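Lab notebook, bench 4. Still working through the backlog of constructs that have no structural model yet. Next entry is a single chain of 111 residues. Request: give me the structure tokens for it.
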Amino acid sequence: MPTPDSLLDSLLEVALLAAAETGRMLVSDRVADLGVDTKSTPTDVVTVMDTRAERLLVDLITATRPQDGFLGEEGADSAGTTGSSTRSTGPSTICTTCRAGRSASPPRSTG
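Model written out:
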């Protein structure tokens, strides 16, 4: 059974690798037409890149931790079986939140 420190180290490693790979995808694969759409309000925007980023994060994390759950802002939603879940916040949400003068809550892992 992993120790709490080794579990945290493992989660951090997965998070850093997934964030780096997703960041590379957002920069290198950016499309000309972001397909900007709105969700609950006119300022609650979502782009094609938000959806792609969330899908890549889910795929990368699931490859290492297949039993973990997800609560994704753009639709990724699975309960998982470990009691650990990852919340995904898209780049456009962070930008909108910062423009509005509020603090953006970073994605976090619980469990």
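Notes after review: Helices lie at 4-28, 48-64, 91-99. The radius of gyration is 15 Å. Flag for follow-up if needed.
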